[in-house]
Amino acid sequence: MGKIIGLIAIKGGVGKTTTTLNLGAVIAKEFNKKVLLVDANFSAPNLGLHLGLVKPEATLHHVLNNRASIQDAIHEYEENLHLIPGALAGRKINPYLLKEKLKQIKDKYDIILIDSSPALNEEILSTMIAAEKLFVVTSPDYPTLSTTMHAVRIAKQKKIPIAGLILNKVRNKKFELTLHDIEEATGVPVVAVIPDDIKMLEALSKTKHIADHAPKRSIVYEYRKLAACMVGEHYTDSRFVEKLKRYFSKDLPKEEINRLQLKEEHFKK
């Protein structure tokens, strides 16, 4: 049976959709797992556009309204990477339907990643209900931290486990919040630190995922580390500079320690 994982944020612009796409692509391409991406952003669905899917005949909207089967809404981007695109919802969403529909295909995939809506209503609730684990995508600034704390609080109120925070668009500037700041404020471990990279925008313009467009960039290595954790496998960064860091320092980065604990507690095979 596959794992259903939701990626949430209640602030636009943090990179939730690009994180969903690129994390799923790395799991599929480099760890040989069958991955399904689900666009559950009913207010502004655009996951399909990231992969060049402009006018899909069947979407998640059709599935939830019983106008198409969930199998008919699955689009194959690569052999191991499939997508259910979204569409603008014309009416109120029943937050329990998504979980019910995904049950029908759960055993066909190793990982199902849900890209949630940032709207704080039934849309994000549908992802929270359907997912077995949640990751909150955030960025190192005060406005985003405020919304991240709110998302964490809501998930805890509904007793939905949050596996960790994905700290995205990091520029390593002094004015940014530190990993320690964010963990202390939210009470949730940061399990990945994803650098900001202009190549991500290049990949988007070519409707490619970053691992395909620029596989040697640091951002891709960080996706690989998180992907390995989520599929319960070991991954060692083979770059020379990383080997030097490991040689001269016995202390692991905090996010790496958090990933090891996460894998042991939640994703160990």
Describe this structure in words.
With 269 residues, the chain is an alpha/beta fold. The chain has one domain (3-267): Rossmann fold. It contains twelve helices and eight strands. The chain has an eight-stranded mixed beta sheet, sandwiched between helices. Helix 10 packs parallel to helix 12 (254-267). The longest helix has 16 residues, at 142-157. It is globular, with a radius of gyration of 18 Å. The model has no long low-confidence stretch (mean pLDDT 92).
Brief summary:
This protein has 269 residues and is of the alpha/beta class. The chain is 42% helix and 17% strand.
| First-last Cα distance | 12 Å
Strand content: 15-25%
The tally of strands reads 8
- Residue share in helices? 40-55%
Describe this protein with a few key phrases.
269 residues; alpha/beta; Rossmann fold; eight-stranded mixed beta sheet; 12 helices; globular
Draw up the topology in text:
Blueprint: E1 3-8, H1 16-30, E2 35-40, H2 47-50, H3 60-64, E3 75-78, E4 81-84, H4 97-103, E5 111-116, H5 122-130, E6 133-138, H6 142-157, E7 162-170, H7 179-186, E8 190-195, H8 198-205, H9 210-213, H10 218-230, H11 240-248, H12 254-267
Parallel strand pairs: 1-5, 1-6, 2-4, 2-5, 6-7, 7-8
Antiparallel strand pairs: 3-4
